[in-house]
Design brief:
The chain is an alpha+beta fold. It has helices at residues 27-42, 57-83, 106-167, 184-188, 210-218; strands at 174-179, 195-199, 202-203, 225-231, 234-240, 253-257. It folds into two domains: 22-165, no CATH class; 174-257, PDZ domain (Pdz3 Domain), CATH 2.30.42. Strands 1, 2, 3, 4, 5 and 6 form a six-stranded antiparallel sheet that branches. Helix 1 runs antiparallel to helix 2 (57-83) and helix 2 packs antiparallel against helix 3. Residues 163-233 form the PDZ domain. This is 26S proteasome non-ATPase regulatory subunit 9. Pfam families: Nas2_N (PF18265), PDZ_6 (PF17820). Belongs to the proteasome subunit p27 family.
Length: 260
């Protein structure tokens, strides 16, 4: 088999591609390991995803494609040497008398040997780039996992806090200490010793004095108010309608502030 190999820019000129050679570092085993690591890095990542200044899975795939091209070129150049009486990389190119061998194409042999040396250096450089890119991608993935875990922990803590707050009764700010029979308060279901945690728009956060409740009552005559009370440790929702009745005021009950 006769194939021409032309030097290009002092580096390589490619002859027909073929199966990669063992001299390229047993690429079959390398490819298996690399593709296994690539599969791990691709989990949970989009192939086109990227970060500023970072590598992507696509970048690594491109490096592997270049590596495979170099291995194919190395194989093609070794095929040239094999076609020239199997001279290989170290067989002498002179006969026993010191004259150039006439049974081989010296130009093809020298060119193929030069190409192989250059290609093997290129192969080492690409393999180093692949390893560095994999390390960067793996480190970035670990950082993302750490951020995700921290965020999940924060959400879990917030959820637990919300649940614990939901289990404990809300803080009361006032208490009912008397109720007149037949009054709007009595009709609504209020009882003596009910602790008020919400009275219309008034709650624990904005309560300052009984004037707050008085203002709500004055502006809500004839309108239903949502009232939440704690009665013997249980929360009750009531609807109280401030109304003029036979007794004093619009409620017919007495409310006092709670001192906590």
């Amino acid at each position: 088999m006769s194939e021409e190999v032309w030097p290009a820019g002092g580096s390589v000129a490619v002859v027909p591609s073929g199966v990669r050679s063992q001299e390229a570092g047993k690429p079959g085993a390398q490819d298996t390991a690399l593709r296994s690591r690539m599969s791990e890095e691709q989990t949970g990542q989009s192939e086109g995803s990227s970060q500023a200044g970072g590598v992507t899975v696509s970048d690594i795939q491109e490096l592997i494609r270049r590596k495979e091209e170099i291995e194919a070129q190395i194989k093609a150049n070794y095929d040239v040497l094999e076609s020239q009486k199997g001279v290989g990389m170290s067989e002498p190119l002179v006969d026993c008398e010191g004259y150039p061998r006439s049974d081989v194409d010296l130009y093809q042999v020298r060119t193929a040997r030069h190409n192989i040396v250059c290609l093997q250096n290129d192969h080492k450089a690409v393999m180093k780039q692949v390893e560095e890119a994999l390390h960067q991608l793996h480190a970035r993935d670990k950082e993302k996992q750490a951020r995700d875990m921290a965020e999940a922990h924060k959400e879990a803590m917030s959820r637990n806090l919300d649940q614990s707050e939901g289990l404990s009764p809300p803080q009361a700010f006032a208490k009912v200490n008397s109720i007149s029979p037949g009054s709007p308060a009595s009709i609504a279901g209020l009882q003596v010793d009910d602790e008020i945690v919400e009275f219309g728009s008034v709650n624990t956060q904005n309560f300052q004095s009984l004037h707050n409740i008085g203002n709500v009552v004055q502006h809500s005559e004839g309108k239903p108010l949502n009232v939440t009370v704690i009665r013997r440790g249980e929360k009750h929702q009531l609807r109280l309608v401030p109304t003029r009745w036979a007794g004093k005021g619009l409620l017919g009950c007495n409310i006092i502030p709670l001192q906590r």
